[in-house]
Amino acid sequence: MADSEQVNVLLYGLGAIGSFYAFILHRCDRVKLTVVARSNYDAVVKNVPLFYSTALQRIPINESQGITIDSKNHGKHTFRPDRVDALQHPQKARANTDVRAVLRTPSESSSHYDYIVCAHKAIDPHGAILPLDPAISEKSTIVILQNGVGNEDPFRERWAGVTIISGVVWVGASQPSPGVVVHTGSEHTELGLFANGTLDRALEESRLNAFASLLTAGGTHLSVFEDIQPRRWEKVIWNVAWNAITTLTDQDVNCWLASSPDAIPYTRRLMGEVIAVARACGVHVKDGLADGLIAKARGLGELRTSMQADREAGREMEIEVILGVPVKRGRELGVDTPCLEGLYVLLRAVNGRIQRAEGGK
Fold first, then answer.
1. CB 117 within 8 A of CB 143
2. Angle formed at CA 251 by CA 245 and CA 254, multiple of 5 degrees
3. Could you tell me which of 309, 242, 238, 315 has the C-alpha nearest to residue 274?
């Protein structure tokens, strides 16, 4: 793909993380960006069928409208409507216009995309991706920007012939109210291939590097790895500890660590169990990782987590890809994980209560 060639990108899931990457991608002049807002579609479509940045366009902003990104690193930007007809009829948009349409489902667009960026919550790994069928061709590349391990498998099972880029997100972002995204200083993306043995390696690497160049042009920080799985497992070790514990105790991370003399040793054992599972899966995990992650968390102040926020808001939580997959792989490989299994059982009960409450709405 030539450096000057237009790139069609579909971003699936417009929560806090999806909105952050929409902001980054729209700042690249080569990107023609379409977003699919899922649970927050009604709020998004009311305010932002199309986007542009006030910093780039220098257009006066009515602060009561649009999606606002308030970023410690990038400043404050608001995305506002531009071409409403592109929302309702994306096929009518002019080919020479940088259209950034908001859709309810990919089936509303007749286009195929160069990159499909999946930033939706990994709640239903198989079912949630079914609407992507109309948007994917054999030339498409799927980019997974989600928490968890094993996330690539449902995509590979459904689309055996495509390139898959696996991404690890270290971005602190929240959506305190519809249309408002707050981004803290935490910002790094790690990318690597989930290799497809039926495709030429050089072709897959060119697709990986081309996508990385889009994010770089948008002004974010990233690293590309030959083997991304150790990075995915490191993030899941982080999430298993902090997401699970903050959700169950309703404390921020450092309050938990200071709560008793047993808190840090317990956290170290918990992380050690997940590290043992990763190593049994053939994934290289560096020595001293647990202590390093604890030290990192202690330096972050009042650290609350996305799973904790989901529980407080009564939203389903990403239990399976963060805890369930390591538990099940540990059982398959004969790795004992009592701390991990205890958290998994308790969080499934909490999630079940949320599901029952949602079913009664």
1. yes
2. 85
3. 238
Three-class HEC string of the chain: CCCCCCEEEEEECCCHHHHHHHHHHHCCCCEEEEEECCCCHHHHHHHCCCCCCHHHHCCCCCCCCCEEEEECCCEEEEECCCCHHHHHCHHHCCCCCCCCCEECCHHHCCCCCCEEEECCCCCCCCHHHHHHHHHCCCCCEEEEECCCCCCHHHHHHHCCCCEEEEEEEEEEEEEEECCEEEEEEEEEEEEEECCCCCCCHHHHHHHHHHHHHHHHHCCCCEEECCCCHHHHHHHHHHHHHHHHHHHHHCCCHHHHHCCCCCHHHHHHHHHHHHHHHHHHCCCCCCCCHHHHHHHHHHCCCCCCCHHHHHHHHCCCCCHHHHHHHHHHHHHHHCCCCHHHHHHHHHHHHHHHHHHHHHHCC
Q: With respect to CATH, is domain 230-359 assigned 1.10.1040.10?
A: yes
Question: What is the domain partition of the chain in residue ranges?
Answer: 7-226, 230-359
What sign has the CA pseudo-torsion 149, 154, 157, 162? negative
Specify the CATH superfamily of domain 7-226: NAD(P)-binding Rossmann-like Domain (3.40.50.720)
Blockwise average pLDDT, block size 10, the chain, 361 residues: 81 89 90 75 48 33 60 82 28 33 54 90 90 90 97 97 97 84 90 97 98 97 98 98 96 96 98 99 97 94 89 94 98 98 98 88 55
Buried b (16+ CB within 10 A) or exposed e, 94-130: eeeebbbbbbebbebbebbbbbbbbbbbbbebeebbe
pLDDT at 34: 85
Decide if 66 contacts 48 (C-beta within 8 A): yes
